[in-house]
């Protein structure tokens, strides 16, 4: 089973709008990153060829032939650790957004 990571400011001792990562902040941040693209629907293709569409706020990171979704949800960003290449990018994103990383 792969790990899931959460980029969050929940552990910081601040209150107000800076205590969460806003969708607008994410859109501005990821728009400046050349390997990311925003989408409101993430499509997943199963091994049997079926496709499932998931609605939400996704920032797709292109890593070679792979597209790895970073999902903004309720003030945090979630990403799967199934591909180990995601770890350095996730740490970079967390650092630049002044946030912490947690499993879960």
Description:
With 104 residues, the protein is of the alpha+beta class. The protein is 19% helix and 43% strand. It has 2 helices and 6 strands; from the N terminus they run βαββββαβ. The protein has helices at residues 23-31, 86-96, and strands at residues 4-8, 36-45, 51-63, 66-73, 76-80, 100-103. It has a 6-stranded antiparallel sheet, with helices on one face. The two termini are 12 Å apart.
Secondary-structure map:
Elements: E1 4-8, H1 23-31, E2 36-45, E3 51-63, E4 66-73, E5 76-80, H2 86-96, E6 100-103
Antiparallel strand pairs: 1-5, 1-6, 2-3, 3-4, 4-5
Low-confidence segments, given as residue ranges, are: none
CA-based gyration radius? 14 Å
Query: SS-based structural class?
Result: alpha+beta
Biggest sheet descriptor = 6 strands, antiparallel
In whole angstroms, the N-to-C terminal distance is: 12 Å
Oligomerization: single chain
Biggest β-sheet: strands ordered side by side in the sheet: 2-3-4-5-1-6
What is the average per-residue confidence, as pLDDT, rounded to a whole number? 92
Question: What is the succession of H and E elements?
Answer: EHEEEEHE
Structure summary, number of beta strands: 6
Helix content: 10-25%
């Amino acid at each position: 089973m792969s790990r899931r990571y959460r980029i969050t400011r929940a552990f910081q001792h601040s209150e107000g709008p800076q205590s969460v990562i806003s969708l607008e902040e994410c859109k501005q941040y990821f728009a400046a990153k050349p390997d990311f693209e925003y989408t409101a629907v993430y499509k997943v293709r199963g091994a049997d060829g079926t496709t499932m569409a998931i609605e939400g706020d996704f920032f797709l990171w292109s890593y070679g032939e792979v597209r790895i979704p970073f999902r903004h949800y309720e003030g945090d960003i979630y990403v799967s650790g199934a591909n180990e290449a995601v770890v350095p990018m996730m740490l970079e994103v967390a650092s630049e957004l002044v946030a912490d990383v947690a499993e879960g």
